[in-house]
Amino acid sequence: MKFASGNSLKLRRLLRFGGAWLSAACCLAQSASAPTPTSTNIFAPNSTPADEIFGLSMFVLAVTGTIFAIVFSLLLYAAIKFRKRANDDLREPLQIYGSDQLEMAWTVIPVLIVIVLFMTSARVIHAVQDARRPPGTIEVTVIGHQFWWEYRYPQYGFVTANELHVPVSDPGHPTPTFLKLLSADTDHSFWIPRLAGKTDLIPNHPNSTWVDPHEAGLYLGQCAQYCGTQHAKMLLRASVDSRADFDRWVQAQQQIARDESALSAEALEGRRVFHATACVNCHAIAGTKADGRFGPDLTHLMSRETIASGVAGNTAAELRRWVQNPAAIKPGSLMPSMNLTDTELDEVTAYLLTLH
User: Which of 167, 264, 295, 328 would bridge with 282, disulfide CB 3.0–4.6 Å?
Assistant: First the structure.
């Protein structure tokens, strides 16, 4: 939906400015060490579902804004014209009853407005929820956990966590990514504003959404449904890659073999400590006996830019601090402290740093 008037243009600019501030506020929850996203303006949609929702929002805002302007103008006119004057005799003004034209107007016009808004909304809902799947569609299973995101790529046979990767979709030949949304525990809500609208993840009730980004970049989102203590730090990061970069990323994620002879003595000892503790009960590392399902898959941990679902940068110092005491970074996190010694912490960190 496009609007040609100057007032609509000013309104759009105001919304974009406000969106930048709102998105910036959301980003404050991230660690200062985390990489800066390429774009955070929630009023600059960059995917077909987001475009549809944005167009509907602008249309509804234009209709309701017009109604507000008319009603406010009439109220202001009446307040000024019929204000109390010094020579007012306080008599009741002439009352008008039984105007069929007036009663018809204030009945028919609102009904027509509601019908138009309903039909427009229904069209957008149908376009988003019943979209066809063209050849080349990517499928990703998204599982919400307290308090992190699991991403399964069944077409490619690997699992990752917290950082979603999807390819750019050419509007001429769309290659959308369809997301199957599941919850492992309680209600969550998947929301990356520039890519698609909010969609809930409900236990035992599969849901779905889709994106087809038109530009490469990093897009931020947030769990939009209160899911517990660390709901505010259950962040979303979607990396939209060129097709070539996406294919390279997929190929790297599919690799499981690693040359243990190349590990340092410290990393080898860290591997022993990792496998001797309860870490293996929650985390999986492909090609090893670690096959946990309760925590993020760590096979390619160091290919991610952040840890703790976007809360901290994926650096050696932050990784050590996270292993030492997860509650120091994310109070309420379900990952326990393993009470490792300083030497063991250094060794485990050295091992984790090899997981590329």
Answer: 295
**Sign (positive/negative) of CA torsion 242, 244, 245, 251?**
positive
| Residues 187, 201 contacting (CB under 8 angstroms) | yes
Chain centroid offset of residue 226 CA: 14
The CATH architecture to which 1-82+131-241 belongs is Sandwich (2.60)
Segment 188-215, tens digit of pLDDT: 999 999 999 999 999 999 999 999 999 9
pLDDT tens profile 43-68: 899 999 999 999 999 999 999 999 99
CATH superfamily of 260-352: Cupredoxins -  blue copper proteins (2.60.40.420)
Residue 9: CB atoms within 10 A of its CB come to 11
pLDDT at residue 100, as a whole number = 85
Domain assignments of the chain as residue spans, ordered by start: 1-82+131-241, 260-352
Burial of 81 (0-12, 13-18, 19+ CB in 10 A): exposed
User: pTM of the entire structure?
Assistant: 0.82
Q: Name 138's Cβ contacts closer than 8 Å, sequence gap at least 6.
A: 153, 155, 166, 167, 175, 176, 177, 178
